[in-house]
Amino acid sequence: MKSITVQQLRESTGVPLIDVREVDEFASGHVPGAINLPMSSLGEHLDALPAEPFHVICQIGGRSARVVEALEARGHDVTNVEGGTGDWVASGYPVEK
Asked: On the chain, which terminus has fewer CB atoms closer than 10 Å, C or N?
């Protein structure tokens, strides 16, 4: 599984970011530009995933890692964000609400 740190995510440009946390978690604060597709309903929204390579984030990296493994098996070019939104916030990076 490919993975990046939040520092590498911050430097990444033009790559879609999918946040797989639940709607209430996402609403409480997320990485700017992230698209919310909760893990609990992702199977119903596979058509909403980008065709190009993309990153996946959650709160600490566990859910996103499981999603990345499942999506890689389906042929997606996807990368997990290690440490998730928790590390993003701890690093002092901006969040959207």
From this structure: C
**Contact status, residue 87 vs residue 8, Cβ threshold 8 Å:** no
Cut 0.70: pTM above it:
yes
Task: Pinpoint the alpha helices (H) of 1-97.
Answer: 6-11, 23-27, 62-73, 84-90
- Of the CATH numbers 3.40.30.10, 3.40.250.10, 3.40.50.1220, 3.40.50.620, which one belongs to the domain with range 2-90? 3.40.250.10
Question: pLDDT tens digit string along 15-65?
Answer: 999 999 999 999 999 999 999 999 999 999 999 999 999 999 999 999 999
